[in-house]
């Protein structure tokens, strides 16, 4: 037994504290390990932002850690995290409003509109101070007013520098349509009349002369398979998309090919029934025979030809 009780340590003499460290106090403690690979430097102005939501801060940190060219659209982010598209879209709007995100729309050479997302590691809004480290002022330009710090602009796409007066690229060719076995002129005219009349059912189904000439052989292929013109018209304009048709000719070409009916069943040709002439009496021998007109039978005609004289009729 010790000769006396130990006194409770106070002040800077806590038994569990390492020598040379600060006295123990409540709150967050850090156990840091220096990173040498796969790390991202995040400014405290983002990590400790007082106006951004926690979801926006975490999403901004995640975007800054992604490599160049990684997908950053709402659908891809919603598939990566448990939050839905609504919360992801709201967080992106927060980052965009505070200058940590920029989304620009560009047109590709094929005419498609794409959105380019740029993550900024410094807020791009002018005059905004960060939480721990204020944005340093930009020295004034001799010929202009002071410029606020901006997120570096990405290199402009080649299509954005294209002269607006340059003609647009040609439209894609229409899909192929079935070819008829015998493109008769009359059948082609019937097909043209059918396609030209589609606009009477819907003004948006107006076709140009070139589109009509491209689609007409496909309609003839349907007519050759014993499909009536009314059935062809019904197949083309039934169940059209609710959002409308941007290019009706391409839609009709796809339908003429995808819904082409099979050939009609084979029917063997039937020989016509032989003609039976009425029975008549021969003018030479009064014998009965079948003929279209009255006259001599076969034997009497042969005798008359041999003798070179006409046969005297039977009295």
Short description:
The chain is mainly α and 315 residues long. The chain has helices at 44-47, 54-65, 74-80, 85-97, 185-196, 209-224, 229-237, 248-258, 298-307, and strands at residues 101-107, 113-119, 279-281, 288-290.
The run of helices and strands is HHHHEEHHHHEEH
- Helix coverage percent: 25-40%
Taken as a percent bin, the fraction of beta residues is 5-15%
According to CATH, the fold-level topology of the largest domain is Arc Repressor Mutant, subunit A
What structural class do helix, strand and pairing data support? mainly alpha
Given the C-alpha coordinates, what overall shape results?
rod-shaped
CATH architecture of the largest domain: Orthogonal Bundle
Q: How many E strands? A: 4
- Number of helical elements: 9
- Average residue pLDDT: 78
Strand order of the largest sheet: 1-2
Q: Major sheet: size, sense and barrel closure? A: 2 strands, antiparallel
Number of domains: 3
Low-confidence stretches: 125-146, 160-164
The separation of the N and C termini measures 174 Å
Write up this protein.
This protein has 315 residues and is mainly α. The protein folds into three domains: 44-159, Arc Repressor Mutant, subunit A (Orthogonal Bundle), CATH 1.10.10; 185-258, no CATH class; 279-309, no CATH class. The protein is built from nine helices and four strands. The protein has helices at 44-47, 54-65, 74-80, 85-97, 185-196, 209-224, 229-237, 248-258, 298-307; strands spanning 101-107, 113-119, 279-281, 288-290. It has a two-stranded antiparallel ribbon with strand order 1-2. A hairpin with a 6-residue loop joins strand 3 and strand 4 (288-290). Helix 2 packs across helix 4 (85-97), helix 5 crosses helix 6 (209-224) and helix 6 (209-224) packs parallel to helix 8. The radius of gyration is 46 Å and the shape is rod-shaped. Residues 125-146 and 160-164 have low confidence and may be disordered.
């Amino acid at each position: 037994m010790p000769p006396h009780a130990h006194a409770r340590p106070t002040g800077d003499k806590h038994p569990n504290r390492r020598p040379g460290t600060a006295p123990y106090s409540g709150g967050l403690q850090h156990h840091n390990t220096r990173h040498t690979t796969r790390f991202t430097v995040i400014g405290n102005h983002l990590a400790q932002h007082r106006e951004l939501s926690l979801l926006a801060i975490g999403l901004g940190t995640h975007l800054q850690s992604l490599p160049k060219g990684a997908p950053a659209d709402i659908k891809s982010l919603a598939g990566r995290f448990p939050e839905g598209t609504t919360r992801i879209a709201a967080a992106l709007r927060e980052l965009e409003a505070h200058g940590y995100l920029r989304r620009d729309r560009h047109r590709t050479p094929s005419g498609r509109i794409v959105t380019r997302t740029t993550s900024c590691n410094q807020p791009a809004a002018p005059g905004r101070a960060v939480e721990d480290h204020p944005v340093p002022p930009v020295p004034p330009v001799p010929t202009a007013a002071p410029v606020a710090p901006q997120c570096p602009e990405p290199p402009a796409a080649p299509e954005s520098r294209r002269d607006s007066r340059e003609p647009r690229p040609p439209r894609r060719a229409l899909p192929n349509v079935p070819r008829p076995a015998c493109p008769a002129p009359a059948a082609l005219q019937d097909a043209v009349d059918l396609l030209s009349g589609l606009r009477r059912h819907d003004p948006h189904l107006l076709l140009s002369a070139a589109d009509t000439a491209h689609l007409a052989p496909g309609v003839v292929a349907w007519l050759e398979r014993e499909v009536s013109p009314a059935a062809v018209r019904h197949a083309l304009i039934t169940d059209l998309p609710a959002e409308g048709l941007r290019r009706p000719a391409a839609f009709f070409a796809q339908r003429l090919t995808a819904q082409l009916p099979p050939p009609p069943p084979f029917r063997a040709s039937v020989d016509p029934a032989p003609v039976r002439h009425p029975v008549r009496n021969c003018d030479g021998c009064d014998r009965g025979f079948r003929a279209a007109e009255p006259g001599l039978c076969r034997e009497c005609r042969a005798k008359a030809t041999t003798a070179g004289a006409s046969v005297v009729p039977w009295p």
